Amino acid sequence: xxxxxxxxxxxxxxxxxxxxxxxxxxxxxxxxxxxxxxxxxxxxxxxxxxxxxxxxxxxxxxxxxxxxxxxxxxxxxxxxxxxxxxxxxxxxxxxxxxxxxxxxxxxxxxxxxxxxxxxxxxxxxxxxxxxxxxxxxxxxxxxxxxxxxxxxxxxxx
Length: 157
Prior knowledge:
globular, 52% helix, alpha/beta, 157 residues
């Protein structure tokens, strides 16, 4: 049901809801994982290796089943997305950007993307023209943030 972007993991654990303070949220994520309703492309794991906190990296390595390989369908669809929205890729990143692949997986599975990115039109001085929510909106792929996930799953804390 959910294709997860790197920004979700960063905001969930590293910024706002660390595991030691929000164990019930972690348990709810675990339920989604067990139901195979919470997945990320393996490029997200690569991004977490580069930018994640040690605790987040440890969690990710303990949950490798969340990170799915880039099958040929995802690769082809992601390439088409990158060709249509070249500004989606981070030219300054020292690793392959997962954004198009996150969107491609959601589109192919008819799932929603979960990302903490904001749309270019919501930023004062956007560094680029397209962010995940912009591309999702244009392609008709549902895109929600962490709070949207909580509401969609009817979680109350």
